[in-house]
Design a protein that fits this description.
Blueprint: H1 8-12, E1 25-29, E2 33-34, H2 46-59, E3 65-69, E4 75-79, H3 81-89, E5 94-99, H4 104-117, H5 123-135, H6 141-148, H7 152-160, H8 166-173, H9 179-185, H10 190-203, H11 207-220, H12 234-247, E6 251-256, E7 259-264, H13 268-280
Parallel strand pairs: 2-4, 3-5
Antiparallel strand pairs: 1-5, 3-4, 6-7
Helix pairs in contact: 2-3, 4-5, 5-7, 6-7, 9-11
């Protein structure tokens, strides 16, 4: 197992094969420590934070916070953000720290490891952290899985959650929806996802119920159990094929009564511009 694969243990107890850049346990003023710019966590459970603060007042901060020295006179947090925030609430002015020299990639990796292994992060926070490792540091899903101790499919499933729109992501962030609900929502068409998410919350669906509903929605092409008054006939299928050929992308036509809509799918900004240019010809 690599140093990063061993997680936080590697920060505190680097192996003999590692260049030891640890400066030992020391004490820093809290005012000298700034947040980790790569920290994936976006919110704290305030009740649990207060419980931790109460424990710190009684027992002190036993496990040092991990920091790295910046070019200025300040230190940036690597691991221990929750303990640091609780120490502030508890009224501490100083905290024990271990100072390590790490790369930006390691800084993000350790922040993720600390939170993911302790299940402190929301599913969207985990997804964005994994995406950052993938896009900014060019790690494959398999490499990320080795770092965080989860299988590759799990990593890929987390990243897929970011295909949901911002409103649905916020529902997950505020814990109105679980990651299990979110994966089921991804099974239905994009234009139905947000309404489906609202329906799940409104009816307090379990994940299993959500999965069965997603299958039904996918089959009938609508949220309602009632079938559209006019089903898609061969004429609309021909129109879809004709438009798909013209715009070189997937086209969906839906019609109910005297109303309907045409959905044009695109892949990225360049593809959208190409389609708009084609429309304007």
């Amino acid at each position: 197992m690599t140093k990063l694969g061993r997680g936080l243990e590697a920060l505190i107890n680097p192996g003999p094969d590692t260049q030891d850049q640890t400066m030992g346990v020391t004490t820093l003023r809290i005012s000298e420590i700034v947040p980790n710019k790569y920290q994936p966590r976006r919110s704290f459970d305030q009740e649990k934070l207060q419980e931790l603060a109460n424990s710190l007042r009684e027992n002190g901060l036993i496990q040092p916070i991990i920091v790295t020295k910046r070019d200025d006179s300040l230190y940036e947090l690597i691991a221990g953000e929750r303990r640091l925030e609780a120490a502030k609430i508890a009224g501490f002015r100083e905290v024990p720290v271990i100072i390590r020299s790490v790369t930006p990639k390691e800084q993000l990796q350790f922040a993720i490891i600390e939170n993911v292994q302790r299940e402190d992060l929301n599913a969207i926070e985990v997804a964005k952290a994994f995406q950052q490792l993938n896009e900014e540091f060019h790690l494959t899903h398999a490499q990320i899985s080795e770092i965080v101790g989860k299988d590759r499919v799990t990593v890929s499933n987390f990243i897929r959650l970011l295909k949901l729109n911002n409103n649905i992501q916020n529902m997950i962030l505020n814990n109105s929806l679980s990651s299990g609900h979110a994966r089921a929502i991804l099974q239905v068409d994009d234009d139905l996802q947000e309404s489906f998410a609202e329906k799940i919350i409104r009816n307090k669906y379990s994940v299993r119920k959500t999965e069965s509903e997603a299958k039904l929605i996918k089959e009938r092409g609508s949220l309602s159990a009632r079938k559209p008054l006019e089903n898609k006939n061969e004429l609309y299928q021909k129109y879809e094929a004709k438009l798909a050929l013209k715009f070189k992308t997937k086209i969906s036509i839906r019609k109910n009564r005297n109303q309907g809509k045409i959905t044009i799918y695109f892949n990225g900004g360049d593809d959208l511009k190409r389609i708009i240019d084609e429309i304007e010809k």
